[in-house]
Amino acid sequence: MSRNHRLIAVVTALGTATAGLVAGALAGPAQANTATATQTVEVFVKRDHNVDMSTTELQPGVTKFAISSRRSAGFQIAQAASGYNKREAARDINRAFNENNLRALRRFEANMTLLGGMPTTAKKSATMSVKLAEGTYWALDTMPRRLDPAKILEFTVAGESVGGRLSGHVIRATGEHKWGKASPRIPTRGRIVFRNPSSAPHFIAIVKLARGKTMKDFRAWINEQKQGNQSPPPVNFNVTLDTGVITTGQSMAFKYRLPRGRYVLTCWWPDSNMGGMPHALMGMYRGLRVG
After folding, report:
1. Would you tell me how many other CB atoms lie within 10 Å of the CB of residue 122?
2. pTM tops 0.85
3. Are 171 and 30 in contact (CB under 8 A)?
4. How far is CA 212 from CA 10, 124, 234, in A?
5. What is the CB-side half-sphere exposure of residue 290 using CA atoms within 13 A?
6. What's the CA gap between 2 and 61, in Å, rounded?
7. In what order do the strands lie in the sheet with 185-186?
């Protein structure tokens, strides 16, 4: 368990929006790199991990979140099941990801719908779009090692729908821990739509292969980790792209820009039915060409 937790921490080092708390290859032909959204919400994550939003009263439909932060932050949108409160959610998150408590992880997964998010730094902002139905939602920063329930911001969605749609190059999770099969190439910039029709939570973590390294080297490294042999991964942590987590049936869209090269598309969410093993160790990785 401790080894798996350290592997999740490796992804956290990429700036992953989960930060210790997004699957497949590209699906179908490239779509227009646009997404319609008639409402935009400005988000700022403070140094103390409190989240500020320009409005906490939204209309249903596609909403663009323009996110910035004072320091490294992981903006995440979530919706709790009826009767599951902030204190219970924080307790389960802290136990699951600080104590490797699988019962807490399963309880969290059963009671939370995760709708995505994006990491930011003081020098790098991000934008993402999600389609929200009427209801009450939470916004939080996932970067703190221990989540304070008082820092979870509540916002509501109600009224007439603003419409809109998500569009871009689709990355899709399939099964429990697989990536969809399709073209392994994306442009150096544009929009990605991340869809999760699978039965488990996922997030995207794309990292550039180190100079001279191939997918064969990455597969060998994965096998070493599964055997308990620690070694540096054959990747360049300075060139990455990642998202927050989305659960079954959810989608999100986001802008991206990456240098040309060869990458690995992964998901490192811990599987609560497999002792907390990260999905990448269960085969959820694929080669990806950018440019």
Report:
1. 12
2. yes
3. no
4. 21, 28, 9
5. 22
6. 41
7. 57-58, 153-157, 135-141, 73-80, 112-120, 235-246, 202-209, 261-266, 285-290, 185-186
Q: Distance of CA 113 to CAs 50, 65, 79, 269, 271, Å? A: 21, 18, 5, 15, 16
| Residue 236 CA, distance from chain mean position | 19
Rg (CA), the chain: 18
How many percent of the chain have pLDDT more than 90?
81
Lookup result for tokens 């399939």: 174
Helical axes 86-98 vs 102-111, angle rounded to 10°:
140
Q: How far is CA 54 from the centre of its chain?
A: 23
pLDDT tens column, 261-286: 999 999 999 999 999 999 999 999 99
Render pLDDT for 200-212 as a digit per residue (tens, 0 to 9).
Answer: 999 999 999 999 9
Q: Which pLDDT score is estimated for 182?
A: 65
DSSP codes joined into one string, 87-119: HHHHHHHHHHHHS--HHHHHHHHHHEEEEEEEE
So what's the pLDDT on residue 34? 42
Residues in the chain: 291
User: How deeply is 115 buried, as exposed, middle or buried, from its count of CB atoms within 10 A (0-12, 13-18, 19+)?
Assistant: buried
Q: Which residues are within 8 A (CB) of 46 and not within 5 positions of it... i.e. 6 or more apart?
A: 52, 69, 70
- At 79, give phi and psi (nearest 5°): -135, 125
Average pLDDT over residues 106-117: 98
Could you give the CA distance from residue 102 to residue 276 in angstroms, rounded to a whole number?
Answer: 7
Q: Which of 254, 76, 60 is nearest to 153 (CA)?
A: 76
Tens digit of each residue's pLDDT (9 = 90 or more) over 65-88: 999 999 999 999 999 999 999 999
CA 29, 66, 20, 15 dihedral sign is positive
Residue matched to tokens 């992804």: 11
Q: Note the pLDDT of residue 160.
A: 96
